[in-house]
Amino acid sequence: MSLDRILKELSALWVDLSKPAAGESVTGVLRACTMTLIVLAEESDDMSAVGETVAALMPEHPARTILIRLHPDGPRALSDRVYAQCWMPFGQRRQICCEQVEITVSDAALSDLPSVVLPLAVADLPVILWCRASRLLGMPEFRAISGMATRVIVDTGSMPDASAALQRLAGATGRAIFGDLAWTRLTRWREMLAQLFQNRELLAQAESIRDLRVRFGTGYETAARYLAAWISDCLAASKATVAADPSVSTLQLELSGGDLHIELYRQDQRLVAVVNGLAQCTNLPQPGDYILMREELSITSRDAIFEQTLQSAARLAP
Q: Element (H or E) spanning 113, and its range?
């Protein structure tokens, strides 16, 4: 793979895009870019779904996208292709386009990635790394790879050992700004709980809370730890219990103390809150990658609450 050739193809791409097709009037092409988005994905990933997510993000977060497909058992090799992602805003005749570079790399060549990818990043713009390959967090090459980015987004919810994943991520946050989609999935849960305590009567009883219990189903231990740690930090609950429960499909939260008892749980596509026997609910569809990444890409600086919660979650006893 030649870096010079990729740069020449990127330059030639805009020349080709600016040429009108036969029978079309010259309307021009607008080049849009607010960041460099690096996506690390396993070869086994549904690349069509990944491509659709990236394409959906582009109108709101236009970027030069570098999609890196990881081939674990391949030879020490890198291959590439260059293309464009274009869309036409409603009511306009001019296309808006972003560049995309796709690179296939074997595990044996991971150490070569920074020297290839860094020259492709757009100068003076943020570099966002979306690491979909959770196994990379435990590899020595990941330090150099994550060092390329202004911000790194991972998903500890997909990792089999929640405790090890959170501890590893907590140890890495001092070097870079990290985001975790397992935390992002809890946004509506945190909003609902915060809205409950906007009630002055409930807020006055918050200090009486002594017991916090979070039960979780398969695949939700990381989220349960985040939720328990965040509430403990906010309300200073004296006793937090996080436990697996086969009867719970996702998460179930209980807060109690004095005359107050609060329960939060998912029921189909709704989030239900029960306060002293009175229930209220809000829509809670399962967020896909597009929704989660759109929220993460809107964060431009360190999230102090997330980082504090991460440290607390990593220390939380199982």
A: helix 113-117
